[in-house]
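Dear colleague,

As promised, here are the two records you asked about, laid out in our usual form so they can be pasted straight into your sheet.

NAME FIELD: protein one
SEQUENCE, THEN STRUCTURE:
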Amino acid sequence: MGACNARRDESAVRRQAGVALLATFFLGSLVNYAIPVVLADTNPGARVVRIDIKPGDEPTTVTPGRRGVLPVVLYSGATFDAAKVDAKSIRFGATGTEAQPMRTSMEDVDADGRIDLITMFRMQQTGIECGHTMAVLRGRTYDGEDIEGRAVFKTAGCGS
């Protein structure tokens, strides 16, 4: 069974801190055990945008605690222009509130003819820890529209 056929079992649980979901994912042949994950609260009014952590790294692997820079791409689409996002409003990490980009640039990363926003974050500021499987990017456009993107990854360098 491949990753595409991974089974997922979710159950909503209210935490004292808010409406985060506690989900249990069973990743089939990738791992032979269930991984509990606390998902970040969602912003129901935010536009959902496509992001990619470490573009070109498949499957995406993140090493928590590592010094260095983590690239995250915010893709433009048919109805979304990443150039209209206020880079000062962007936050990225385990809940989407942790790290500010240390620098940004614009480039057509996916060769679709649209300019995408490349953001670079200090890995140690993201709040990503061993066992996390998802990170969140949040921000706002210059027009005041909230945006939110999520990307999945696996952690490395965490022992066995």
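NAME FIELD: protein two
SEQUENCE, THEN STRUCTURE:
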Amino acid sequence: MSRDILFEVNFFLNSFLLGILITFAYDWFLILRRCFRHNIFMISLEDILFWIACALAVFYMLYRENNGILRWFAVLGATLGMWVYKRLVSTYWVNYVSACIIKTVHFILKPLIFISKKISLLFSFIRRKLIELLKYTKKKLTIQLKLIKMILCKQKAKKESGHGKKSGIPQKTSK
């Protein structure tokens, strides 16, 4: 084989591998999106940054391998690499890794969730008891306040009747 043909085959294989690498890298975004919720803004931002990085990687590969000249089989090689990886590996890889991450995170967080639920139950119990105590205290204080008011009214009435002032109660006069 001539040296030029070997160079072109090498260039095609590098394009093929770059297609696999790009799809593999994007699978990590898919895995993270399965494991942790993303809003539409974050998904869009991640995609834009990812494709900018991919464009730079493709440009670097073209510049290094082919002096920056875009060749049809470079695009074909990258597309073929993406397609082969997506059909043979991607679905299984994303499902397996995301399941492992979710199970690991769940395993790690399970004791923390258990403890937080118990602490929450303790705080709700304390809160209920404090509310009961406050209601009981309010009831007793209201009763005491009424008693104090009654006593003060009686003392005031005695004071007014004892000092010669007219009270609201008619008094009998003797003849």
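A couple of things worth noting about protein two: The radius of gyration is 42 Å. The mean pLDDT is 87.

Best,
R.
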